[in-house]
Amino acid sequence: MDKRLVVLGGGESGVGTAILGKQKGFEVFVSDFGKIKETYKQVLIHHELDWEELGHTEAKILNADVVMKSPGIPEKAPIVQKLLEKGVRVISEIEFASAFTKATIVGITGSNGKTTTATLTYEILKEELNVSLGGNIGKSFAEQVSSEASEVKDKKNYVLELSSFQLDGIETFAPHIAVLTNLSPDHLDRYEYSYEKYIASKFRITMNQTAADYFIYDADDVEIKKWMEKHPIKAKKLPFSLQKEVNQGAYIKDKKIILTIDNTEFTMPIATLGLQGQHNTKNAMAASTVAKLLGIRKETIRQSLEHFHGVEHRLEKVLKINNVMYINDSKATNVNATFYALDSMQTPTVWIVGGVDKGNNYEELLPLVNEKVKAIICLGVDNEKIKKAFGNVVEMIVETAGMEEAVKVAYRLAERDDTVLLSPACASFDLFTNYEDRGRQFKDAVRHL
């Protein structure tokens, strides 16, 4: 049994892992190269855990039996390289925590839509099951596993939103139900700018599944299809599609979702979904497939889909001022997510974009920008790529130094019946702590206009 657990990174997943590790009898040490947030420090102190910040003490790290690396730390980090050279197991929180629970796990990944799909799935399941939401959102999976009560009668279920970074660190993790929402280039800076490597990382979600498990996926996605032709998947396959009929899985006919699993059928008119738009129809198909597999009643699924109105920072309507609608889509951290956002705009749009570019190719946005965007406001330290991509298509491109200025400029440029859209297509780490911080700053700035 591994006895010394070192946790790299004192954030949500790191602190959760430390708590679970201590509970399971490990000798635990938490090390963060940066500063640990005060709230997390208090938790570490409360649980009497050993920790350090602002640097790594190698002697206390390289003697680990197992290391949990937080998803934000790249494999290229010197301390990680040293651990790998020594042959120490370096795993993710998901891998570590899953060994200590017998719960049914639903794992949801994809370049876009995974937060919405995971949240929607959780909202449906919680009506009838004992279920928790975790992974990339909310409370860490490890901490939730640590507080699982052994005397609970109804079996526990988890819905986990999983990033490629979390999946990179798995060895035996096997969700009973895996969902892959879609694929588009993202985080390529972490995958040596290789789209193939990024796709392989996403498909790790099915790596340990058996014929008793399920894989739900977008059958319209070209890259998913290409990968599946070359790599056999053991789990039972349940596709969803807007373009063609499928025998098992979900498709659209007569403006209705039709979901077939074995011999049972579930139908629902698209018009009654709480979230509209083609990508949201796909999210609803994926979530209802999971719910049906876990035995949720049809009526419960229908009502949940009707009442669900989305997650914060994803095409979230903030306010209407002088007949201009302000929309917060801060969660759009890649080009494909911004594509959905621009595609759903019905009025002339002032688009706030930019941040840390992860190897973006803006070409696919050109037709949409040409058709819908009247002005671009850049929100990043380096905006050359954005200016180069859209300089010939949009008359007005303005560079700003922060969110407050960006919103004030947008207010001046927008006319009656326009939309101001924050959809950055980039990571947030230059001016903001994360996309939530960026979205909240946008909402605050709009409310102060």
Automatic annotation (TrEMBL):
Residues 108-291 form the Mur ligase central domain. It catalyses: UDP-N-acetyl-alpha-D-muramoyl-L-alanine + D-glutamate + ATP = UDP-N-acetyl-alpha-D-muramoyl-L-alanyl-D-glutamate + ADP + phosphate + H(+). The keyword Kinase does not apply. Its EC number is 6.3.2.9. It is found in: Cytoplasm. Its main location: cytoplasm. InterPro entries: Mur-like_cat_sf (IPR036565), Mur_ligase_C (IPR004101), Mur_ligase_C_dom_sf (IPR036615), Mur_ligase_cen (IPR013221), MurD (IPR005762). Residues 313-426 form the Mur ligase C-terminal domain. It holds the Pfam family MurD_N. Keywords: ATP-binding, Cell cycle, Cell division, Cell shape, Cell wall biogenesis/degradation, Cytoplasm, Ligase, Nucleotide-binding, Peptidoglycan synthesis. It is an enzyme of class 6 (ligase). ATP binds at G110, S111, N112, G113, K114, T115, T116. Pathway: Cell wall biogenesis; peptidoglycan biosynthesis. GO terms for molecular function: UDP-N-acetylmuramoylalanine-D-glutamate ligase activity. Belongs to the MurCDEF family. Cell wall formation. Catalyzes the addition of glutamate to the nucleotide precursor UDP-N-acetylmuramoyl-L-alanine (UMA). This is UDP-N-acetylmuramoylalanine--D-glutamate ligase.
